[in-house]
Amino acid sequence: MPWSSFAWAAALALPAALAQDGDADQPKSPEIAPRMQPDSHNTTHWPTSPLPWGELNFIHTTDTHGWLEGHLNEVNYGADWGDFVSFVQHMRDKADRLKVDLLVVDTGDIVTGNGLSDLTTPQGYESNRLFRNLEYDLLTIGNNDLYNSKVTGQIREDIVTYYDTNYLSSNVKVKINGKDEPIGKPYKHITTKHGLRITAFGFTLQDFKVPKNVTVQGADDIVKEDWFKNATSQPVDLYLLIGHADIGQGCKINGKYKADHNPLICMKDWFRKNKPEVPLQVLGGHSHTRNFSCYDSASSGLESGRYADTVGWLALRDVAPSKTWKGSKTLTNVPTPTKTCKPHQSTSSYSAQKTVHLDRRYLDFNRQTFAYHAIGAKGPDVPAKFDTPFGRHVTKEIQATRRHLNLTAELGCAPQSYYIASSPYKCPNNIYTLVKSALKTTVNNKNASSARLILFNTYGIRYDLYQGPFTVGDAETVSPYPDVFRYLANIPYEKVKTLECDLNKLKKSSCDDEKWKEKCNSHSLGLSTNPYAGDPQQNVLTNDARDLDNDKRNPGHVTKDDFGDCSDRKSADCGDDTRHIARVENYKHPYYLQVKVNIDEGMTKTVDVVFPDAMETDVLDILKRKKEEVKDYKDKSFTTREFLKEYAKSAWNKNSTCKIGQ
After folding, report:
1. 662 confidence band (pLDDT: 50, 70, 90)
2. CA atoms within 13 A on the CB side of 427
3. Are 500 and 455 in contact (CB under 8 A)?
4. CATH hierarchy code of domain 50-403
5. Higher per-residue pLDDT: 566 or 659
6. Which of 364, 499, 594, 650 has a Cα-to-Cα distance from 200 of 20 to 30 A?
7. Measured at the alpha carbon of residue 352, what is the angle toward residues 350 and 355, in degrees to the nearest 5?
8. What is the pLDDT of residue 345?
9. Could you report the per-residue pLDDT of 451-501, keeping only the tens digit for each?
10. What is the C-alpha to C-alpha distance for residues 171 and 530, in angstroms, rounded to an integer?
11. Using an 8 Å Cβ cutoff, are 393 and 406 in contact?
């Protein structure tokens, strides 16, 4: 594929390039590698359990959303894309030494949610170039990659064309020059290095606000296509379904956007019914969780987190036919998968004709984790030999791009961390408490003393805000949508007292002014009192019989899937590669919030109603006002991306030192 020649050419050119950029005179340790982004922070926790290896192994990413620089103030996920490039190359080399196969797969949503992807026009103009430095064997497209035709066009130019036949999109078409065209290839036949025959497909969910220029086909239509009939008529050892869709759903759904089925899972069901003799593997995405689902003894699904916080690992044994397999017959000196899948409920009449042994692992996205599994490093520091020349090159590209986009500019020092769902609504550590303060301080016009009611969509906040240096990049991560503030002037206050509640009712949400049940604890942060008692589905990212010292663990993902429950201290079947302290992530909040400024409940007669432009239609409908009455409240350059930046400049610039939190 095109990556190889590019990668090696870049790597060979590195000595001269590095000398030219001024690093040649800097002292370098002969043994220890520095962290890759200068403003990131390394975790102090190392995995202690090696990965299982099978005949066929997968490295899986999904929903990266432009987070290629890593999580700079979160030690669990401090690696950048260059570190990941180094990791993947080491793992490919290891697979070759073991004489087994390794496929690297991504299942979509590579934009929206980080300044690297979002601060260019179109989104992805810079980040796509960085993303494609990784040698992916298969990829597919996500819903966020499809909302804007220019963004989709950029992905088509930068990613689809680059990866060519490796980019699969079996059920998505986009309108090009007036004609519906597949965004990628509908399927791919693969014969691996060691002779395993795989037919792969890529499916995207239907349950999103599909743009007019996009068509997402359903499963019933796909199975009628001539190309599909041809693809499924070939001899094969494994069917591989990669997709941007929830692996834990059933085929039939009652979707938020009126979709009635999940194409990825419906296609899985079709294959298990019509091809039960062939093992099948699903790699999914979209729901932003770590998850593994057993379907039957020869089929399962894996999903691998979000925002470059997780690398999914999956090892399969007993999938390769003994007559055609050219790889290792028996693996030594590495663990091999011993688990088998049993469906947790009977959902169909078919029965598998083969049993696959398998296991999964969810890796934290940090250098220690990568170095441990790639080269056997055990600390306390990451050896310099972990970093490949090309990985270092990618890291420097990311750093240069961040500077170019001004993402590294510090706006202030966040004095504490603020959470979307790990602290009760209206508590000091809840992020919407901060949002209200910031809106009140920054959303004003020339008449700052005027009475105003500011409305805000809480789902415009995409991520927690962590204690420590607060940069332009952090602001773009927390509040990435560029909505302009609009307003209706001099509206009778009596008419708008229930406006926020009426808006929330449209979303079947509780009102902002209603009394919320949860009380603020002493820390206002939902850490589980029992570190092994968590939400039955998914908590944030605690170590294993891999490290049971509570005091040394960071809050983080505590995953429950069909193979094990990481909240169970005694479980040997936990999928989290590094265990963490469970943190509650299910505190609710209203869909819309409101901020009252200069309003005296007994005296105020009229107010200005201020809102992001995305809310305009609903506000006008409820108040029965005309579009012509709406005006810009501030200059259009001041958007929902800007209010936290302005607040940080004024409120968080008093600290001479700035420390990060947990």
Report:
1. low
2. 26
3. yes
4. 3.60.21.10
5. 566
6. 364
7. 165
8. 60
9. 999 999 999 999 999 999 999 999 999 999 999 999 999 999 999 999 999
10. 45
11. no
Spatial CA neighbour of 169 closest among 159, 179, 154: 159
Q: How far apart are CA 146 and CA 211, in angstroms?
A: 7
Q: Which residues contact 474 (CB under 8 A, 6 or more apart)?
A: 72, 73, 414, 465, 466
Q: 410-519+588-651 maps to which CATH number? A: 3.90.780.10
With H, G, I as helix, E, B as strand and everything else as coil, classify residue 393: helix
CB 151 within 8 A of CB 125: no
Angle value at C-alpha 35, between 30 and 39, nearest 5 degrees: 140
Read off the pLDDT of residues 623-639 as tens digits, 9 standing for 90 and up. 999 999 999 999 999 99
pLDDT digits 0-9 by tens, 297-336? 999 999 999 999 999 999 999 999 888 899 999 999 999 9
**Calpha distance 638→257 (Å, rounded):** 31
What are the structure tokens assigned to 559, written together?
């995953």
Spatial distance between the Cα atoms of 492 and 473, rounded to a whole number of angstroms: 40
50-403 and 410-519+588-651 share one CATH topology? no
The neighbouring-strand residues paired with 610 are 454, 487
Q: Yes or no: say if 159 and 134 are a contact pair by the CB < 8 Å rule.
A: no
- Which is more confidently placed, 654 or 206? 206
Domain coordinates of the chain in residue numbers?
A: 50-403, 410-519+588-651, 528-586
Half-sphere exposure for 66 (CA within 13 Å, toward CB): 27
**Per the structure block, which two tokens stand in for 563?**
């193979």
> 613 phi and psi, to 5 degrees?
-60, -25
Query: DSSP letters of 521-536?
Result: -SSSS-B-SSTT---S
The crossing angle, in degrees rounded to 10, of helices 499-506 and 616-623 is: 120
Q: CA nearest 632: which of 424, 481, 486, 490?
A: 486
Query: What percent of the chain shows pLDDT beyond 90?
Result: 79
The pTM assigned to this predicted structure is: 0.89
| Average pLDDT over every residue of 583-612 | 95
DSSP string, 408-437: T-EEEEESS-BBSSSS-TTSTTBHHHHHHH
Residue 57, strand partner residues = 102, 315
